[in-house]
Amino acid sequence: MLRARITGVGSYAPPHIVTNDDLEEMMNTSDEWIRQRTGIERRHWADDDISTSDLALEASLRAIENAGIDKESIELIIFATLSPDHNFPGSACFLQTKLGLEGIAALDIRQQCTGFVYAMSIADQYIRTGMYKTILVVGAEVHSKGLDKTPRGRDLGVLFGDGAGAAVVEACEVTDPANDSYVLSSHLHADGRYAQMLWTKVPGMANGPHWLDVESIEKGEYFPQMDGRRVYIHAVKKMPESVREAVEFNGLTVEDIDLFLFHQANLRIIESVGEALNAPPEKVFNTIQEYANTTAATLPIELDEALRAGVLKKGMLVVLSAFGSGFTWGSVLLRW
Ligand code: COA
């Protein structure tokens, strides 16, 4: 059977590291508050002349090298981000040109923290139908330029960081489904009733006569807003559900999973999700301490870091699970 396999991963974070102490004065916060509530120790911020597609380019080149493919074999770029280079066109077009791949298909998706899960699912479907054989899936974010970096924005400002991760996804013929390396399944969900629990209100066409006006700028409505408590409650419920859905669909149990890669928003969320699933902590790989929440880039960064740390090994059953703005959530189950 024709299925998708990840044949290469890569990640990149801008070199400028911002510690919790660096934010103390800027946002009237403290290292202690951030560590206790979130587990975050530092994050990376892009320089002024760097944008999302620049980070994506570095991650993509690393993934292409890791896959050992000729970049010309890529037929489609799927770019997941909530922090695009421009309002339109999509960042996949800018990345495509930077990669020198003019003419191939370029698709942006906006599923926030669940972006990589949705993007992998789309890649999987294109490969199963035979439409494409080689797809570059990228998640990248520059949050630092979009955050309110004053005490007013501290609830969100401390949580996010910049970074990019990419995966080369190729078609493969699966002859031994119980042992071959491939994407077994993906499951996607959303509940738009909670859209305003984590969103950026403006700019946008729902903003009355003008998609951006001085009044909304003065009110700071172009900064993201969040009901943190509500996000927390839903995340710790929906992520375990998404893992159970994935294992049950494949006739497996949670105990069969060798490695859990959860979206990295908050260490307390990850620990609660792990406990709800009875997942031993040594099977859960975390990157939040170093990168904070990099939204759509989080899971591909995790894949790359786990691989380079020797934690992700051939033959392992791996579940990726995410929850984020929308609300959106879902899972990808694969054998590495
Ligand atoms: N530094 C210091 N104090 C802060 C702060 C910061 N960065 N941000 C908020 N506070 C203060 C608030 O002003 C409030 O003070 P008050 O009690 O005097 O009014 C208090 O801390 C808030 O405390 P509390 O609401 O109990 O925090 P919490 O334990 O709920 O943690 C979050 C807050 C945001 C860490 C938590 O709700 C969370 O992680 N939610 C999920 C967020 C998330 O993951 N979003 C992305 C999902 S993809």
Quick description:
The chain is of the alpha/beta class and 336 residues long. It has eleven helices and 13 strands. The longest helix has 22 residues.
Strands across the major sheet, in which order?
Answer: 1-7-6-4-5
Question: Any guess at the CATH architecture of the largest domain?
Answer: 3-Layer(aba) Sandwich
| The named CATH superfamily of the largest domain | Thiolase/Chalcone synthase
Number of helices: 11
Mean pLDDT across residues = 97
Radius of gyration: 19 Å
Any idea of the CATH class of the largest domain? Alpha Beta
Largest sheet: 5 strands, mixed
The helix-and-strand class reads alpha/beta
| SSE order | EEHHEHEHEHEHEEEHEHEHHHEE
Oligomeric nature of the chains: single chain
Proportion in helices: 25-40%
Q: How would you describe this structure to a colleague?
A:
The chain is of the alpha/beta class. The protein has helices at residues 20-27, 31-38, 52-67, 91-99, 115-129, 154-157, 214-218, 228-249, 267-276, 288-291, 298-308; strands at 2-12, 17-19, 42-44, 76-80, 105-109, 134-141, 163-173, 182-190, 198-199, 225-226, 259-262, 317-324, 328-335. The strands form 4 sheets. It has a 5-stranded mixed sheet. The longest helix has 22 residues, at 228-249. It binds coenzyme A. Coenzyme A is lined by residues 29, 33, 37-38, 113, 154-155, 158, 226, 228-229, 231-232, 265-266, 269, 293, 324.
